Recover the amino acids of this structure.
């Protein structure tokens, strides 16, 4: 089924489901939809004319796969778990030169991996996520549902890339090409990290936290511009003078500066992992 027909069928199923009409058995279109996600022919968000746009029907298709299926026992190694979907078949990864290490790499059905990627254990990539060519998903990292990860990205150890599945019209978390995310970072709630940026360890990026962009000298929310070096700092809070808080209270903020040449050179160590 081509993408146009698949979109039409998913949209009709969604309308019927919203109207309280559900088929007796999951239709074949749901399996074809999951296969299209895994092939990368459809994705939850795409960049068009320089702006990221959400494909609502794709998120609807993911939700239908949850809503129109039953939870059943499944196995992962020696573990029995219960879910509506199995984990993804990974036979295609070999032909792409992509590797996932044993004992704890889990890829849910409906997730896409490109060529020459590395997925270290333990880590988890959820349905609808799109992980592009040359990207590293390091140990103890989670890539949430519908998150869009670009080419040659490094997601450091113990990183959380949040998923935005609902509302269906909201853009998921976006990590653009050639980004390095330091260990222990959190990127949530549809935040967009611009191409070529380097994010320092333990930084929290979310639309509710201001980004002090020292390059353009402005305060922005919800995105980090391209080619920035970003790191967590704390600024004075509105309750700083409260009598219960000795020494004042502070709230998180992100400071963004120019990329430094030595920072870019530091990311080249990833090349050694691929030789």
């Amino acid at each position: 089924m081509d993408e146009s027909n698949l979109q039409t069928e998913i949209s009709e199923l969604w309308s019927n489901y919203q109207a309280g009409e559900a088929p007796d058995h999951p239709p074949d279109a749901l399996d074809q939809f999951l296969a299209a996600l895994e092939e990368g022919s459809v994705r939850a968000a795409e960049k068009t004319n320089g702006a990221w746009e959400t494909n609502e029907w794709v998120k609807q298709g993911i939700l239908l796969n949850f809503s129109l299926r039953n939870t059943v026992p499944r196995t992962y190694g020696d573990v029995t778990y219960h879910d509506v979907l199995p984990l993804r078949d990974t036979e295609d990864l070999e032909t792409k030169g992509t590797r996932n290490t044993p004992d704890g790499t889990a890829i849910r059905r409906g997730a896409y991996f490109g060529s020459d990627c590395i997925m270290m254990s333990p880590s988890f990539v959820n349905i609808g996520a799109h992980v592009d060519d040359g990207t590293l998903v390091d140990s103890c990292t989670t890539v949430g549902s519908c998150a869009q990860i670009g080419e040659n990205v490094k997601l450091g150890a113990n990183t959380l890339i949040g998923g935005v599945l609902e509302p269906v019209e909201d853009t998921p978390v976006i990590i653009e090409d050639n980004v390095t995310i330091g260990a222990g970072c959190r990127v949530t709630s549809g935040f967009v990290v611009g191409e070529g940026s380097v994010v320092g360890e333990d930084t929290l990026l979310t639309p509710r936290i201001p980004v002090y962009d020292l390059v353009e000298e402005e305060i922005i929310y919800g995105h980090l511009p391209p080619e920035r070096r970003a790191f967590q700092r704390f600024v004075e809070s509105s309750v700083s003078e409260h009598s219960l808080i000795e020494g004042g209270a502070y709230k998180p903020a992100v400071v963004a500066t120019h990329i430094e040449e030595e920072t870019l050179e530091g990311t080249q160590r990833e090349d050694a992992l691929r030789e």
Q: What stands out?
A: The helical segments are 3-18, 28-39, 56-67, 91-96, 261-266, 270-274. The chain has six helices and 26 strands.
